Amino acid sequence: MAIPAYGPTAEPLVIGDLVVSYGERLAVNRLSFSVRAGEIYGLLGSNGAGKSSTIKAIVGLVRPSWGRISVFGLDAAHASLPVKQRLGYVPETSLLYEALTPREFLEFVASVRRLDRKAASDRARNYATAFRLAGEMEEPIASLSNGTRQKVLIIAALLHQPPLLVLDEPLNSLDPRSVRIMKDLLARYVTNTGRGVLFSTHTMEVAQQLCHRIGILDRGVLQGEGTLAGLRERAATGDASLEELFLRFTREDEGLDAAVRTLEGG
Amino acid sequence: MPRSERSKGASTSELGWRDAWRLTDVAFLELSLQAIYASKQGNLPPPIPAAQVARQARSRVVQSKAIVATVLALLVAGACLLMRAAPRIVATPFFGVPVSIPVFQAGVLCGLLTLEVAFLWWTGLQVLPTFLASAVLPVLEPLPIDERTLGRVAGLLYLRLFDLPAITVIVVTPLFVALTLGPVYGLAILPGAAAAVSFALALGLLTGRFFVRRVQGSRGGGGHTIVRWAYLVLWVLPAFAMFGLIVVAPGFLALIANTTSAGPTPSNYLLAASFPFSLAALPGAAANGAGVYGLDATGATVLVAASIGYLALAIGATAWLLGAVRRVGLAPPLIPASAPAARYDLVPQTPALAVLTKDLRIASRMPGYAFLVILPILDAAALGLFTFISGPAGSTTTFGLALAAVSTAALLATFFGPAFFATEVIAYSYGRTLPLSDRSILIGKVALVVAIYLVASALVLGLTLFRVFQPVVFVAFIAAELPAVTAASFLELGILFRRAQAKGLPIVNLYSGAWIAVLVSIPGILVAGAPLVAFEAVGGASSTLGFVAMAAFALGELAICAPFALGIGGG
User: Fold this and answer.
1) pLDDT of B42 over the 70 cut
2) Is residue B36 over pLDDT 80?
3) Are the C-beta atoms of A250 and A218 separated by less than 8 Å?
4) Is pTM beyond 0.90 here?
5) Do A232 and A239 form a contact (C-beta atoms < 8 A)?
6) Nearest to B105 by CA among B209, B184, B177
7) How many angstroms separate the CA atoms of A119 and A228, rounded?
8) Residue B361 is nearest to which of A99, A137, A142, comparing CB atoms?
9) Residue to test with chain B: of A107, A136, A152, most B Cβ within 10 A
10) What ipTM was estimated for this complex?
11) Which DSSP string do the residues of B523-561 spell out, in sequence order?
12) DSSP secondary structure string, B440-488?
């Protein structure tokens, strides 16, 4: 079955004033950003910055305390199933049905997404071949390496060719060949389409190569947003790398040299 | 750290038992957390402070152990009541065989020890996959701790999973027996109780790991699936043995009475040497002499020597256990070397059917979950087989027993209904990111309960076809109960879903409170059982009205429960 149509004018993802808290701990504080059609949006942040909490709120794993999440104009709070139909999600950790094999898992995902048999099988074959998964399709997931599990999750997210991909550290654990495939695939995935990709990472090189726009998140607050050129302009740093920009926006460059010197001293 | 280096350093940095116990404290908290919240499978803990999450996990594990310990204490109490009532019970011969009071008491103690072994063994089989999935031991391995301490920590961790049940068996059994029959009996049953615990825990570890490695490491595909289910049937056997023992108890007593009354024969020596009879007969022999079992001096020697031998074996099993837990906890699943040809053909189904298929596939690799599917079926099969010895073919007793088998299947399938949410616990958060409605999940789960009932009923029908001679009436009974089983499942699962929605909790966290699953089973069993009561009240199988009343009652229940459950919406 084809993915339900989405309005050409609606943006793939709009986040407005999002607040996520765990008990008394505030993980995301009034966060607003959007992912535009044809765009890969990189969400950068240190550990605990709120990237995964934001993504979990988008995919329905965490209930926001406040704010609005809109996917192609649909309110995620009130139309969770239509929103989930338009999403493909790769989690940060390998959240898989360990007792299933990759083929059984993909079959379950294809069923839930009501996919056509031929289209689902062809896509599974193509992606599995590209990621060299042939030997593992009938092994229980519990016995697979982290990298292989990650490939299975990526295939599951792409199986229905969703108009919005939400990827939480998707390149972690992948081998260099698969990283290269993913980068090429994502670049092509959004070109000349209405699709969007939200991509969280703390690997600056990948974000610099891949993302059209970048949001820098620190302690749940968006500290900077824009294209690489725009961020450089805002920080007045000339040709600074994304890593330098990130450290400056998050003020994590403060005391950095002293910390390194302390470590050198043993 | 490489093992060789660790061994070299062991002489200088070896920690003692006290340090091992302290390490176990921390590791056991992590084990409890994983057992209850399965966060390593991607589940989020409830939105409460971390210290409270830890407290909850700890207290829920204690609750689970307390439930097992209570069941064991009840078994002991039941056995003691039987022994107290021995003079009245043995007044009637068993299958025409007169049974003396000491032989009856030894038989009851023998049954009790068997039940204790079977129940603890079965608990071990259920607990071991959680123990392994918690991955507590691999976390400890890289730490600079010597080999011996790591082994002790692993052993103590495993033992702590069973501390309350094991203490109950070792303390309550001698205590209750002493209060019932006298202090000599109480003291003399202590070796039996200790051996029962030791054997059960060792068997749990040995068989549990064997099945986990072969079942969880098994590939996909038809042939592998059949082998997996065959292993899983074996897995359920300890639980089945508990039920079977109760069923065959009168015949077992008659067999013991026959053997002991024959005097000092080779068969009687064999009985005196067998487990657990030797340990169960020890109290009677200590109090009244081995002559009460028809044994001479040689027989008495055999009895005592066998008891000492079993006790030594139990000590050996405990020592093995303490060393083996670490090896077992670190061993990877067995994967066959040769990879099969890749299959990419995906056959999408409707979402509800996909949930059912997924659950069956998960069950085929998860013994703890497969148990829920297999037990009602095996139970019905056992009762069906019992019709072959319950009376002449076509008799009322035989027919009643066949109907009882179907009724039991209905009630058991309903009782386990809420536990089918266990797959949603291990189904992890990923499932909640898919466009899968609560209604589809609910229908898939109800379909599983109904499928178990139908398979069990079909099995009973097949087994009793030539004993009951009334297939049409029998099918009518199965069909009349079917809406009630469906209604009961709808009710139980509907309550669970509604509670999850009201509390804003994912369903996965809901099940982590075991009491909820037990609580919703009560209305479920009432709904499944009410038409059976109506059937009996109106006239049973002798009247057509009984079937009509049953079907009408069941359909009425379905008409109420299904809309209640399906009203949960798409969520």
Assistant:
1) no
2) no
3) yes
4) no
5) yes
6) B177
7) 38
8) A99
9) A107
10) 0.86
11) HHHHHHHHHHHHHHHHTGGG-HHHHHHHHHHHHHHHHHH
12) HHHHHHHHHHHHHHHHHHHHHHHHHHHHH--HHHHHHHHHHHHHHHHHH
